[in-house]
Structure formats: structure tokens, C-alpha cells
Specification:
Elements (H helix, E strand, L loop, with lengths): L19 H6 L15 E5 L2 E9 L5 E10 L3 E5 L10 H6 L3
Antiparallel strand pairs: 1-4, 2-3
The chain binds zinc ion.
Length: 98
């Protein structure tokens, strides 16, 4: 019977994710197909449940402890220039959010 000890950790090869600049070169910038805007966007979360925990102090006042928000509805993504619904690009937007 041989005791082999701990398995050596397999070292994962480090592959750096492509930088934002590289992705730009790859043509992954989101461009509004309606007005050509590629700079200003906004995101709307529908039906957000916001839970805030409080502690009641000795004098009866309350102090918030933590906020917890839960998005129940859809998250939509819009062009801030012409308000076009660009929700189809939301996945990419999330990927590129740093
Ligand atoms: Zn637009």
C-alpha cells in the first residue's frame, strides 16, 4: 500500500480575456442600428423588489442595515439617443460591463 499524498494541483493555463480594445477591433461595439449612436445607452429593470433591513434603535429611530434588490421582470436596454429598444444587445452589454 502506497500513500501518494496530495494530488498535485493541476495548473490551469492562464488565458487572459481579450481586452476591451481587442474586442473593439473584433467589431463588438454595440451600435444603434437606428441612429448610429455607439456611446450612450441606458438599462431599465422592470419590477424590482427592493428589500431593506432595518434595526430599531433604543430611541425608536431606525437605521438601515442592508439593501437587497431582486429583479423580477425583464431588463431592457435602450439607445439613449433615439430610445430604440436594443434589448437584443443586452447580453453583449453585460459581457462588456466592467
Ligand atoms: Zn439610437
Amino acid at each position: 500500500m502506497t500513500f501518494t499524498g496530495r494530488k498535485p494541483r493541476s495548473r490551469k493555463k492562464k488565458t487572459a480575456p481579450p481586452s476591451a480594445a481587442a474586442l473593439v477591433r473584433m467589431g463588438r461595439r454595440i451600435v444603434c442600428p437606428h441612429c448610429g449612436n455607439d456611446r450612450h445607452f441606458f438599462e431599465v429593470a422592470e419590477e424590482v423588489m427592493l428589500t431593506t433591513r432595518y434595526v430599531q434603535n433604543e430611541d425608536g429611530s431606525f437605521t438601515p442595515q442592508s439593501d437587497d434588490s431582486q429583479i423580477l421582470g425583464d431588463i431592457r436596454f435602450y439607445c439613449a439617443e433615439c430610445n430604440a429598444d436594443l434589448s437584443q444587445y443586452h447580453g453583449r452589454f453585460v459581457e462588456m460591463l466592467f
